[in-house]
Design brief:
Elements (H helix, E strand, L loop, with lengths): L1 E5 L4 H13 L4 E3 L10 H13 L5 E6 L3 H7 L7 E3 L3 H9 L5 E5 L5 H12 L7 H12 L2
Bound molecules: D-ribose.
């Protein structure tokens, strides 16, 4: 299952991605915020990341205005590796090399259809492991 969350700047893009999840029969959980609501991106980050840490969700998508605030907040949570991406290469390689479990977007940065391309490659790219596993382990050590 994929969890998706956003602040008020990210609602429209989140809705677009949710429609794509539905069309592609991808199991998802939308933790908000929702149309007409205002919410702070650290709250949205925590609500979504809690679902990953509990094991209920496998990966997450987070959206704010820039993608930066929500990624900074998400990366404070132990076990979360969140990458703010606006290009295909980064969205692919943050899976291959960093085993990122959260993809962040800036709704004011990226177009709707580009975001879908990035979600697709992020969800369908496996971690390469090997020499990268040791580096991801080093990131985990920083959390201690
Ligand atoms: C909200 O207006 C905006 O500050 C927020 O979405 C985000 O861009 C912060 O990083």
């Amino acid at each position: 299952m994929i969890v998706i969350g956003n602040d008020h700047a990210g609602t429209a893009l989140k809705n677009h991605i949710v429609e794509w999840f539905k069309a592609n029969k991808i199991d998802y959980l939308d933790v908000g915020c929702f149309e007409g609501e205002k919410c702070d991106y650290p709250v949205a980050a925590k609500n979504a990341c809690d679902e990953i840490i509990s094991g209920k969700a496998e990966k997450g998508i987070l959206i704010c205005g820039t993608g930066i605030g929500i990624s900074i907040a998400a990366n404070k949570i132990k076990g979360i590796r969140a990458a703010a991406c606006s290009d295909y290469y980064s969205a692919k390689y943050t899976r291959l090399h960093n085993d990122a479990n959260v993809l962040c977007f800036g709704a004011r940065v990226i177009g709707d259809e580009s975001a879908i391309e990035l979600v697709n490659v992020f969800l369908n790219t496996e971690f390469e492991g090997g020499r990268h596993a040791a580096r991801v382990q080093m990131i985990s050590e920083l959390e201690k």
